[in-house]
Amino acid sequence: MRNQNTTQSQTNITSEQQYLGVLERVLFSIVASLPCCVFLFINGSMLFTLRSRPVFCETSRYILLYNLLFADTVQMVLSQLLFILATVRVKLTYPVCGFLVMLANLTNDISPQTLVVMSLERYVAVCYPLRHSTIITVRNTSVAITVIWAFSSLNILVRVVLLLDFPFEDLQSLEMKQVCNSLVMVLSPVSDHYDKAYNIFVFVSAFAAITSSYVGVTVAARSASTDKSSSSKARNTLLLHLVQLGFSLLSTVHNLLVLAVFKSVNRVIFVRLQTFLYVCLIILPKCLSALIYGLRDQTIRLYFMYHLCCRLKLSKPKVDPK
């Protein structure tokens, strides 16, 4: 009888612990989802703003900004989906997980490359003002965006080919034993080496291009024929691009930080730190571009605030920007 009571007590304790674990996961999922919903609304308002006036659709820097925000928003949605699936411990099949992870990697690759093109656009605007309108056209911008997506898609194709080398036929089931994330889909040392080499190449190249543009604009600013105000704004914009590149790099190393934390702390602290790192390194950086450009750019600001406030608190702008 005493053994039965002990067993029943242990069962009750185990059930209570499981219930508390589920409740904790749900609460942390809600905590992470609330800022994500807010940031999605901000990004959505900015994307709508950039398609609300012809001037935004016909100016290269706004077209590039739209491409950057679109990729960041898709990345945010996919990251939140994977986070929720991991929180509730839903196990996917390898094909479904592979599709989500590869799509997330595709959109994540777009950001640093778009920042490079945006930096080059500012460099041409300051250093070659008379040729800017002939070099930076809507057509050339569209070609640049197409090349960015094609290059990123080629990278995803290489990753898929490396992924197919894994002997899936030896598995009893295609259902994964772990929750879906990008680390789980690195199934071979070759894939791991390729991912690291590609990320290093992209970010080093982007850093070099943006830094070179900044140096070029700074040198041009010393010329008497250069507009000092335009040069100052361009330098500030290029510094902003460097900060954005740093944010993109943070999202890339997020999984490595989570893995290091997992090996260092207990499960309860790990769940809390994982949620904190996810919000700070994945979700927040994807929203900062919309906020910074929406508040910094005088052409966008009034329309952005008008749509952000759901057209309630601000009167509609009467004059289109020129």
UniProtKB/TrEMBL annotation:
GO function terms (MF aspect): G protein-coupled receptor activity; odorant binding; olfactory receptor activity
Protein name from the UniProt record: Odorant receptor 131-2-like
Keyword Membrane set for record: yes
Domain of life from the UniProt record: Eukaryota
Main location: membrane
Pfam family, one: 7tm_1
Gene label: LOC115432640
Gene Ontology cellular component annotations, sorted alphabetically: membrane
Organism per entry: Sphaeramia orbicularis
Transmembrane parts of this sequence: 26-50, 62-90, 142-164, 197-217, 238-263, 275-295
Location of this chain's protein in the cell: Membrane
Keywords: Membrane, Transmembrane, Transmembrane helix
SUPFAM superfamilies for this protein: Family A G protein-coupled receptor-like
